[in-house]
DNA sequence: GCTTGACCTTGTAGTGGCTTCAGGGTGTGT
DNA sequence: ACACACCCTGAAGCCACTACAAGGTCAAGC
């Protein structure tokens, strides 16, 4: 199977597949006589795994770690569970941040209810006066 | 006022101030005889505005647009309100995405409740079998 | 006058997870 | 013979910074 077919099967672009190979997430494919990459079922499974992790917004590092666990057949899945728990924590932390943000934005939005000169607009005034509180120095989530 | 003092006033780093200048968000400062940047009250206000927008997770483009509105004293604030509404939409859309993600992760997490060989782990199986549905082609949010 | 140290300057490269592009080679159908 | 879809590599771009290298400036203390 050539790269285009693989990409389509895994719902991603050809470039993404090559990128994963370069990053070491996907093992290098064999090559045909004309230097085309050639994939088998193992590659499909691996790529689907990666894409599913990405669909859950895991980072490449998290995925790399996860793949390391999965590739060790003697190991138990405790580490896998732990990683998923941590990632769930990231997602929940980010949700909390965004809910707080939403609150601030709604409050800001209510400061203006019409069409005024910008000087008189409560939103503009709010943006000038708000107190930027320094963001927590160390983030507990990698989600933007 | 020198750059370090300005940065401290606005709760950001010196590098960030120079970066905003390079990007055209903050007008270039005057220079002292020894080529140090020298800032006045207008710069403080402008930088605070920018930092407040960033604290609300607006992009540089959104901020640039907003500054354009604010700098036109003849204009009304309708465009400002609209931009804030749109941004609020981004935030809400991202919250919805992350809540869906959380649901999926919780469901996935429940598939394993102990320490099994990875082959037998419901989470690993889940990650292999999930159907990556193609993400909506065009994003309605710039938030990660 | 000399050193130390805090501050300032410019420029470049790195982050993540891709996407896009330039400049080519390969394979199939007409 | 040509078109056209697919493949290859390598480099650059995205965003909002951050970090670093290599140096200039200035006040205080010895």
Give the neighbour order of strands across the main sheet of chain A: 1-2
Spatial gap, N to C terminus of chain A = 36 Å
Q: What is the chains' assembly state?
A: homodimer
- What's the average pLDDT of chain A? 91
The proportion of residues forming helix of chain A, as a percent range, comes to 55-70%
Number of strands of chain A: 2
Show unreliable segments of chain A: none
- Tell the overall outline of chain A: elongated
What is the radius of gyration of chain A computed over CA atoms, rounded to a whole number of angstroms? 23 Å
In terms of DSSP E residues, the strand content of chain A is: under 5%
* H/E series of chain A: HHEEHHHH
Tally of separate helices of chain A: 6
**Structural class based on helices, strands and sheet pairing of chain A:** mainly alpha
Described by strand count, sense and barrel closure, the largest sheet of chain A is: 2 strands, antiparallel
Most extensive chain-chain interface? A-B, 60 and 60 residues
Pfam families (chains A, B): MerR_1
Protein name (chains A, B): MerR family transcriptional regulator
Domain HTH merR-type (chains A, B): 1-69
Keywords (chains A, B): DNA-binding
């Amino acid at each position: 199977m050539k790269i285009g077919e693989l990409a389509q099967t895994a719902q991603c672009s050809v470039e993404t597949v090559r990128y994963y190979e370069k990053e070491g997430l996907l093992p290098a494919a064999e090559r045909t006589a004309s230097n085309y990459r050639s994939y088998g079922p193992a590659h499909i499974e691996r790529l689907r795994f990666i894409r599913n992790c990405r669909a859950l917004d895991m980072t490449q590092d998290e995925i790399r770690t996860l793949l390391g666990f999965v590739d060790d057949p003697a190991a138990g899945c405790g580490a896998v569970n732990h990683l998923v728990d941590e990632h769930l924590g990231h997602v929940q932390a980010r949700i909390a941040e965004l809910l707080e943000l939403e609150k601030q934005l709604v409050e800001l939005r209510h400061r203006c209810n019409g069409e005024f000169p910008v000087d008189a607009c409560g939103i503009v005034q709010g943006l000038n006066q708000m107190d930027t509180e320094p963001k927590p120095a160390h983030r507990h989530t990698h989600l933007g």
